[in-house]
Design a protein that fits this description.
Blueprint: E1 5-11, E2 20-25, E3 28-34, H1 38-42, H2 55-60, E4 82-83, H3 89-92, E5 104-107, H4 108-120, E6 132-134, E7 139-141, E8 145-148, E9 154-156, E10 159-165, E11 174-179, E12 184-187, H5 198-210, E13 215-219, H6 231-243, E14 249-252, H7 258-270, E15 274-277, H8 279-288, E16 304-307, H9 316-322, E17 327-328, H10 330-333, E18 340-343, E19 362-365, H11 373-389, E20 393-395, H12 404-414, E21 418-422, H13 427-434, E22 440-441, E23 449-451
Parallel strand pairs: 3-4, 4-5, 5-8, 12-13, 13-21, 14-18, 14-19, 15-16, 15-18, 16-17, 19-20, 21-22
Antiparallel strand pairs: 1-2, 1-23, 2-3, 6-7, 9-10, 10-11, 11-12
Helix pairs in contact: 4-8, 5-12, 6-7, 8-9
């Protein structure tokens, strides 16, 4: 008797992020990602003033799957693991609510970045939900991380899993080729084909094609708003602008976008400037420099500075950074600001007061533009700060997600029988655009079980 695979989509449908896809095959169940639903949470909560404090709050609102036997305190978990594609919170953030005995399968670099995030922040609402913790006396991991690299294959019960690296805006991103006794499923996670490591995404496409999948589950983020650019173009534009700027250059981007951080470091060096980074960026780089696959610059180099505000008490992770590097305050950078490129986000704007940017300084936003009302409000506040400091605002960015025409070509090469789009807020547009492909485009529904 053939055992058919069932899929239930608990997140990532009609929204960007929050992927939570349950794969049920016979006696084995695994989740493909278990991400945080940022958009849906914001409809109810306003952190830090009001936030979900336990899984019951999110279960009640329908933001966590209503499945018995997977959350904290169960005697025997009812699922066999979670395949995490990459270390963005919208793909792993809700794993904090899962029972600690449920294994998290992820790349070695993904584990490093998740643990680093937990040691300097936390995905969970309280210490009961920490994935890891770092204090003067504690350096612990509470989850059962099971790591791999491209080339590895492993079994979860009767399910065979082949992870293949892809290029994304964070290191250690993977897609998966999943084989059961009856079907083969390819899952892209988040990926792009215009980044500096596009050959990795091409390798996933090639291996997925050879696997002859019955189903491809793919992201479709850029089905609206695709902007044709590349990391090389970002470097070129920044290099030109920095070369013509007499004052300080402030660059804002996601703290875990290592490719962008490397690009900013490169163009700062090209223009004989030092790079000033945040304490959290320094802590992440301190960890990642041990990974030979990432080619990360060292925070102990003379052309790297660690910048922030003075604090009366430091956390253990901050102390570990300061054991290696000198700390620079705004007033230290102010007299040499024409020799500095400084990374900062909206949340660092207070710290720029003591830098006191001179006339001729600029602000570069190197991240996606606001896509919701809350983001637009924060962007307007950022522009107010730029006006206060006299900083013209430039947008220089390239996306971490595949462009529509590239995705269509990838689907054609993989040649699955069916395609299910996730991680897109316009699935109907996705279907219409892809409808001339041989593969059938099937739009998944939230909380609905689909038999393959």
């Amino acid at each position: 008797m053939i055992t058919l695979t069932e899929l239930t989509f608990y997140g990532g449908v009609g929204e960007i992020g929050g992927n939570k896809i349950l794969l049920d095959h016979g006696e084995n169940k695994i989740f493909l990602d278990f991400g945080k639903n940022f958009g849906k949470e914001k409809a109810y909560y306003d952190e830090p003033y009001l936030a979900a404090r336990e899984e019951y709050h999110l279960l009640n609102l329908g933001l966590l799957p209503k499945i018995d036997g997977i959350y904290k305190g169960v005697e025997e978990p009812d699922i066999d693991g979670v395949l995490v594609t990459h270390p963005h919170l919208d793909h792993w953030g809700y794993t904090c609510f899962l029972d600690n005995n449920i294994p998290l399968y992820c790349g070695e670099g993904t584990k490093m970045i998740i643990v680093n995030y937990e040691q300097s922040s936390s995905a969970g609402p309280s210490k009961d939900y920490y994935l890891a913790n770092l204090t003067k006396n504690i350096d612990e991991e509470y989850k059962d991380f099971r790591t791999f690299r491209t080339g590895d294959r492993f079994n979860i019960g009767d399910i065979n899993v082949e992870p293949v690296h892809v290029d994304h805006s964070v290191p250690a991103a993977y897609g998966y080729i999943i084989r059961t006794s009856s079907e083969t499923i390819a899952y892209t996670g988040d990926f792009r084909l215009h980044g500096p490591k596009s050959d990795m995404s091409e390798e996933f496409i090639e291996k997925a094609s050879r696997a002859d999948p019955d189903l491809l589950i793919t992201e479709g983020t850029n089905i609206t708003g695709g902007h044709i650019s590349s990391e090389a173009e970002v470097e070129e534009k920044m290099d030109s602008l920095i070369g013509e700027t007499p004052g300080i250059v402030v660059v804002s981007f996601s703290q875990r976008n290592i490719d962008r951080l490397k690009s900013v470091y490169k163009v700062a060096k090209n223009n004989d400037r030092k790079l000033a980074i945040s304490m959290k960026q320094a802590f992440l780089l301190k960890e990642l420099r041990n990974d030979p696959h990432l080619d990360i610059f060292d925070i102990r180099q003379d052309d790297v500075m660690v910048f922030g505000s003075e604090k009366s008490r430091r956390n253990e992770w901050e102390k570990r950074v300061l054991n290696e590097v000198e700390f620079w305050k705004g007033e230290d950078i102010s007299p040499i600001q024409d020799e500095v490129v400084l990374t900062a986000t909206y949340h660092d704007m207070n710290d720029l007061m003591n830098v006191d940017p001179v006339s001729g300084s600029v602000f570069i936003s190197s991240q996606s533009e606001a896509f919701d009302e809350e983001g637009e409000i924060q962007h307007e506040k950022l522009l107010n700060w730029c006006e206060h400091y006299g900083l013209p605002h430039y947008q220089i960015h390239t996306s971490g997600h595949v462009l529509p025409h590239q995705l269509k070509d990838a689907i054609e090469k993989i040649n699955p029988d069916e395609v299910m789009p996730v991680h897109t807020n316009r699935p109907k547009l996705f279907k219409r655009y892809m409808d001339d492909l041989e593969a059938e485009i099937v739009l998944p529904k939230v909380n609905k079980c689909t038999k393959l």
